[in-house]
Specification:
about 80% helix; about 130 residues; single chain; mainly alpha; globular
Length: about 130
Amino acid sequence: MLSDALREALTWYYFIPRIDTAGELWFEEFKRNGLDPCVALEHAVAYARAKQIERSIAVLTGVAQQLKAMRNTLSPALYLVLRRLYFAVLANVRYVQREYACASKFLERAADAETQAIEQAAFLDRKSVV
């Protein structure tokens, strides 16, 4: 089952292929290669919220390995979007653990990855979708 946050993201992603051909190609790649890591990250968030930190970290470790393995096969923009999501979830886990400084650093890394993704593919900027 997908969370409301992932459903919202997928709704937003729905508009990306309607922007231009590059957006269409990116979205196809996202559907092929990005959904599995996103669903795994959803599980990591659910485990963290349930205070099952070890399970959450185990899922995050698996996603990190998956992203590392996919690094050279994904477009830079998709890789960076998935990296942004990974760091955001990792920040959430650290926040649940009350490691606020560490959580803040991971949020900064997530923001950096988002900025880099938009630099790679401007259609990822939500402002261009509205």
